[in-house]
Design brief:
By secondary structure, the chain is an alpha/beta fold. The protein has eight helices and six strands. Helix content is 52%, strand content 15%.
Length: 190
């Protein structure tokens, strides 16, 4: 815990997707590590309000926003040292019935967060891996798999921490996934 405290001490942290089950746990954990400020970005207004009321800390700043909105991310990340990315659509039935929304949030939203983090020169970009991205057989798994791979292919890769680690794909498997998602998007745009 001592090393963890020193990692977060006096840092400004953004947690994208901060009111979900994983995000809210990260908020609570980081709050105990003497961070200077914690910004919680989420599109769930009620969840933000409830978490803010529950925690009641001057270090917390809640931000209504969506990772799909790059302009909002630019404002949210201003001055941030560490970004936690836990924002995603994670419910299989909803992703199956709304596949392009899953692509826009899980893939394009992740890329937006990466792009802005690079532009704003964040020190660390921490993404949370999911077991649902392993052996994907559905839209949610496929979009989350691609979202997990994006940070390691970008300029930000030296600053990326992925927790926990996921099985490594071969280059051919990754290319196959990218092509499948591209063709899927083309069909949806017709």
């Amino acid at each position: 815990m001592k090393d963890l405290k020193s990692f977060y001490k006096d840092k400004i942290i953004l947690i994208a997707g901060g009111v979900g089950s994983i995000g809210s746990k990260i908020v609570r954990k980081v709050l105990g590590c003497e961070a200077r400020a914690i910004r919680i970005l989420d599109n769930n207004e009620t969840g933000l309000f409830d978490l803010e009321q529950e925690i009641q800390s001057e270090k917390i700043r809640v931000l209504v926003g969506d990772i799909r909105d790059k302009e909002r991310l630019k404002k949210a990340i201003e001055g941030v040292n560490i970004v936690f990315h836990v924002a995603a659509l994670k419910h299989v039935p909803l992703c199956e019935s709304n596949p392009f929304e899953a692509v826009k949030t899980n893939v394009i939203g992740t890329q937006n967060l990466i792009d802005v983090s690079i532009h704003k020169q964040v020190e660390k970009f921490i993404t949370i891996s999911t077991d649902k991205a392993v052996n994907q057989v559905n839209v949610m798994g496929a979009t989350n798999l691609l979202a997990e791979r994006l940070p390691v292919t970008e300029e930000i890769s030296k600053q990326v921490l992925t927790l926990p680690m996921y099985p490594t794909l071969t280059r051919e498997e990754m290319d196959y996934m990218v092509e499948k998602i591209k063709s899927f998007c083309e069909v949806l745009e017709r």
